[in-house]
Specification:
By secondary structure, the chain is mainly alpha-helical. The protein is built from six helices and three strands; from the N terminus they run ααααααβββ. It has a three-stranded antiparallel β-sheet. It is elongated, with a radius of gyration of 35 Å. The N and C termini lie far apart (about 145 Å).
């Protein structure tokens, strides 16, 4: 009996040890699975729920267009995997004005395409904003062209992600481009774009590379520092080194590609320029504003004389082409030829006029 009890006790102990080993293995496998499912930032030992969290101090793995734009905001991308230079400033230093934009090795085609892309961004992203509001949006686009996390061209920045419907600017993917712009609003955006591309800087937003309206809170907001609020937009830059002027050291080298054609402006009756009471910035002579499509009034360059051109009439022979609402220049309809005469007074005879036709009653017309 004693031997039997000892045998049973040993069997129970063996089963308990086996169960403990199985539980330990289960816990190890569960922990490993949870570790692999948790997103991590390269170069760190911790974990983060978002690849852009704490992006100012670390180099996250490269992932294109992680967060697309939503209504009223820009999207964001992963910061580059480039090493941070030794001795670089990692702390925030307040709002620092961006340097003026410089063309570098840009061709005439590059300038024309950059002008069109930036004008489209200002019109569709901020047509309802003030002059300063549009200047601030232009500054964000130009700041991105200098930052290694974004494309190095104006058109590349504006239309980034459109090939995957993962756009960085919401107007590119939300169908806004199917709506032809108004001539007055397009002209206003073109003047502001020309001023920015000619070296104008909107200093209050500093080195901002992101913005959103006060009505939304994007997911990238936690990794940013707000620089200013202009109109309905809040502007942000990255924390730490990647939000400093030292990080935005890329030189513009041209190579603009126009991935989409903006529909031509449509005529409108009310000019938006100056509606908000703000004065438009002067346009530099180095970058003249191109003529707005579908308009006949093109600007004449200074120092040149426009030669009047006579357009051949397409009216068939024997037809005057004059209507009640539109007459040819210099001609007056018969019914209005006597308009504007002084009212005749019965006690004073009407003066004789050479060539006036006399009717049977003695009156002239």
């Amino acid at each position: 009996m004693r031997v039997a009890k000892r045998t049973v006790r040993r069997m129970i102990q063996g089963w308990l040890v086996l169960v403990a080993l199985l539980l330990a293995l289960g816990l190890i496998f569960a922990a490993r699975g949870a570790w692999h499912r948790t997103p991590r930032i390269a170069g760190t030992t911790g974990t983060s729920p978002s690849p852009v969290a704490d992006a100012g101090q670390r180099n996250p793995r490269s992932a294109p267009d992680m967060l697309p734009a939503i209504d009223g905001s820009t999207g964001t991308v992963a910061l580059p995997t480039l090493p941070i230079p030794p001795g670089a400033t990692l702390s925030d230093s307040g709002v620092v004005a961006a340097p003026p934009f410089r063309w570098g090795r840009a061709s005439a085609t590059d300038k024309a395409r950059a002008m069109q892309c930036l004008t489209a961004a200002l019109y569709y992203e901020a047509s309802g904003e003030s002059v300063d509001g549009q200047r601030a949006v232009a500054q964000v686009v130009l700041n991105r062209t200098r930052h290694p996390a974004f494309p190095g061209t104006v058109c590349g920045v504006v239309y980034q992600g459109m090939e995957r419907a993962h756009c960085q600017f919401s107007f590119v993917c939300d169908g806004a481009l199917s709506r032809p712009p108004a001539i007055s609003g397009w002209s206003r955006a073109a003047r502001i774009a020309a001023a920015a591309l000619s070296g104008g800087v909107y200093a209050p937003v500093g080195l901002a590379t992101h913005y959103h309206t006060y009505a939304v809170t994007p997911a990238w907001n936690r990794a940013m520092v707000m620089t200013d609020m202009v109109g309905a937009h809040l502007f942000h830059r990255w924390k730490g080194y990647w939000g400093t002027a030292a990080a935005m050291n890329r030189v513009y080298a041209g190579g603009e590609v126009l991935p989409i054609l903006v529909p031509p402006p449509k005529p409108d009756a009310v000019a938006q320029a100056g509606e908000d009471g703000g004065a438009l910035p002067p346009v530099s002579a180095t970058l003249p504003v191109p003529p707005v499509p579908m308009t006949s009034n093109t600007a004449t360059p200074p120092g040149t004389t426009r030669t009047p051109q006579t357009k051949a009439s397409t009216t068939p022979t024997g037809v005057t082409g004059i209507t009640e609402t539109l007459a040819r220049s210099g001609e007056i309809l018969d019914k209005w030829k006597d308009s504007g005469r002084p009212i005749e007074r019965p006690d004073r005879p009407r003066p004789e006029e050479p060539g006036a036709a006399v009717i049977g009653s003695g009156q002239r017309r």
